[in-house]
Amino acid sequence: MSASLLLLCALAGAPAPAQDDLAQDDPGQDDPGQDDLAPAAEGAAPQALEAPPARAPLTDDDEIDDVTEHVSKGLRCPVCQGLSVADSPSDGARTMKARIRELVAMGYSQEQIEDYFVDRYGDWIKLEPPTRGRHVLVWGLPVAFVLFGGGLVAWYVQANIGVRSRRAEVTPVEDDELSPYRARILAELGLDGGEA
Amino acid sequence: MNWKVLLIGVVLVVPLVVVLALGFGHDPRALPTTMVDRPAPGFVLADMDTGEQVDLAALRGKPVVINFASSWCVPCAQEHPWLVRVARDYQPRGVVFLNVLYNDEPIKWQGFLARYGQSFPTLVDPGGRVAIDYGVAGVPETFVLDDQGNIVRKFTGPVVPDEFLPLLDGLL
Question: Could you tell me if the ipTM is greater than 0.90?
Answer without folding.
Answer: no
